[in-house]
Design goal:
This is Flp/Fap pilin component. Keywords: Membrane, Transmembrane, Transmembrane helix. The chain is mostly helical and about 50 residues long. Helix content is about 80%, strand content about 0%. The chain is built from 1 helix and no strands. The longest helix has about 40 residues. The termini are far apart.
């Protein structure tokens, strides 16, 4: 007999884990690239009259 045939919650949990990993990766990438982008816009603003 199969007691665990409904696996709908498993898929939802996997999507949650994937979403969490993508969120952490986005925060890490933005924290690394953020200062460089800020410097780029600061340089562009100082060049414009």
């Amino acid at each position: 007999m199969f007691f665990f045939t409904d696996e709908g919650g498993q898929g939802l949990a996997e999507y949650g884990v994937i979403l969490a990993l993508i969120s952490v990766a986005a925060v890490v990438v933005l924290s690394l690239i953020g200062p460089k982008v800020l410097q780029l816009f600061t340089n562009a603003n100082s060049v414009l009259p």
